[in-house]
Amino acid sequence: MTDGGPPDLSVVVPAYNEERRLGPTLDAIRDHLHGSALSWELIVVDDGSDDGTADVAREAAADPRIRLLAADRNRGKGHALRLGVAASRGARVLLTDADLATPVAELDRLAKELDGAEAAAAIGSRAHPEADIAVHQGRVREWLGRMGNRLIRAVAVPGIHDTQCGFKLFDGDKARAAFADARLDGWGIDVEILQYFRRHGWPVAEVPVRWSHQEGSKVGPADYGRVLLELVRLKARAASRTNLALFALFLLSSVLLYKDLWTDLGRGYLADSGQDQNQWEWFFSVTADNVRHLRDPLFTTLQGFPDGVNLMGNTPMLGLSVPLTPVTLALGPTVTWALVLTLGLTATSYAWYRLFARWVTGNPWAAGLGGALAGFAPPMISHANAHPNFCVLFMIPVIVDRALRLCSPAANVRRDGVLLGLFTAYQIFLGEEVLLLASVGMLLFALSYALARREVVREVGPALAKGLGVAALVCLPLVAYPLTWQFFGSQSYHSVLHGDAAGNSPLSFLKFSGRALLGDEATADKLALNRTEQNAFYGWPLIALAFAITVRLWRHALVKALAGTAVAAALLSLGQKIRVPYTDVVLPGPWRALAHRPLFESVIEGRVGMVCAPALGALVALAAGRLAAAGRVNRLVGLAAVALALLPIVPTPFTVTERAPVPSFFADGLWRPYVKPGESVVTVPLPDPAAADALHWQVRADLGFPLPGGYFNGPWGPDRMGIYGASPRWTSNLLRDVRYGGAIPDIGDAWRAQARADLAYWKAGLVVLPPQDNDEALYTTVTRLLGKEGRRVDGVWIWDVGR
């Protein structure tokens, strides 16, 4: 030191049980610095060692430039570094591990980088192409390190290839500020400090160094997992109060919508879900069962027995149902159902908010308003009755964001392309039709933006094309087998046709949905296929507001693109035939060009109207952001107009009804003596898309038996056309007709022979007639078909027809 002033350099060495290595390390550092012109201090931090580490440091501290700090107990590298840096006084601070895996002579490289650049930190890098790795770690540890660094780059500090090398040189004051703000005690401290530098705009230079693995490393395999947990803590801490507040508001809104379901999970059933809640709970249960028993998650014979169900050709949302298997097994599928819906709407709204905050407006509350509109728009709420694959869309904004990044000047084509490919692959396991509609929306936006700014095509076209190519190379191998199974595997089908009346009425865009605050269920019911397919219903005030925003901000290319996307999507959603309201005039619709194309032929075209939701959300976010910065009068008037346009479509809580109790015969396991392995239970009538309670009974019976019939998409006929439910048979049609009031036919030998053939096809072990409307007529029908009376067991009639 010079005249008692602060030194040029402070060296901080954290040490835990380093009795054998610390002495040579301190000697090497002292010898190197002794030959330099720098004034220096060396701070050893004993992190609660239980060997002679502190004694070695005390012996070295005979040199007044060496100090020992001792922690009361072992708390981790992060805590030790925080103590050491806080005690430092140097103009620069060097952090080095006690093993000197990077020789102290490499300090000169780092110092030279700081001297000749604008960097506030120079960090040693083993991942740099010019780095010299003399002795490598074990293969497993080296692989874990590479994977960890990739994850860290993706979620915390993009662009830094080696955050964990224990040799870093910082500007002293900036280092002390960063470590004073740090909270992590473990190995994740390196990432936390680099994040702090990034947030404050302090450049970090990555410098190639010599490095050799040293035996006795304190980093074990479990520490990689601890670093990941610390990354989660970092992300949570990095979240701004605004982010947390908006997430909490979105979550509260979702909980309020489903409050009646949450308060009665044992008996509650979403009233407007039709049979979809039974179907989805079955999907969650079967997926969990397949995972638990290590069976193929893409196929099952528990429904549609004996042919089975191509699960990839249906909508089990494997991207969520598989990871939520522990929840399903521990708490039941109804909890999973409620969680997916509630958290799905929350995450979707939050994801749109983050997208709008990045690309549309710098005002987070304005972006949050847009996110709320996109996530809780009337068509989203309609599908939230029964279709999680159409309301849990949190990956769509993430995919859009990554595609937009490929269009920016700072695009990293390889990284962004890889991530886009991974995100797309994951979305395929959440919902393919949604991904198709989102792709249509993105294409419409791209075309609209290109028309507004044609020069952009030349600027971003090459990078975007390369990025999409990289994404395809990443995505296709991941989904090749599942998609091959979906389209060509067992029980695959070609398309599901919905007729010519599946488009939206033009009036539906101006009316309010049944769930809206000012909505009218009777009016909405007349304009939609059903209450889960109210795919427009944005209301005339919001449409008028969007029109006003478009006119006022028309000079902006973004506004032109958003308006073009919304209008084009609305027109496509009108379907193949458009009936002019209040007339008998029918016009051809633009959907005719797509209706019979592969993939599009199975789409309910009215759902294209959902693309308008994020477009309108972005327009509202943009306008609200500009109004927030306007003068007081304009701000108050403008925001009042926005509020008045959105208030009528605020959703109201979902109606929940009490679920019919499960027959004790199934709930208490009384079916077991009658059904042998390989046999099915034939419920009367068989479950179908109109009445799928038997799926719920099967779930309550722990999936102990397969069911013929069911509610799913499967093939029908020689052309394998897609239909809802199993291919009908004579006996299943008869039982259904009688159940819904049909007359009992004259059942003779032909009918009995057909029943025997159908039961043999279904490999039936037991026929069960639960209490229901027309159960007397059903009892008579089954008795005549089987030629014997049924037996009453715990409230149901049964016929033992097994082998």
UniProtKB/TrEMBL annotation:
Transmembrane among keywords: yes
Signal peptide limits: none
Pfam families: Glycos_transf_2
Occurrences of domain Glycosyltransferase 2-like (ranges): 10-170
Residues spanning the membrane: 334-353, 365-384, 434-452, 464-483, 537-554, 561-578, 608-629, 636-654
Involved pathway(s): Protein modification; protein glycosylation
SUPFAM superfamilies: Nucleotide-diphospho-sugar transferases
Membrane disposition: Single-pass membrane protein
Keywords assigned by UniProt, alphabetized: Endoplasmic reticulum, Glycosyltransferase, Membrane, Signal-anchor, Transferase, Transmembrane, Transmembrane helix
Keyword Acetylation carried by entry: no
Highest taxon above the source species: Bacteria
Localization per Swiss-Prot or TrEMBL: Endoplasmic reticulum membrane
Entry's family note: Belongs to the glycosyltransferase 2 family.
Listed name of the protein: dolichyl-phosphate beta-glucosyltransferase
Biological source species: Streptomyces melanogenes
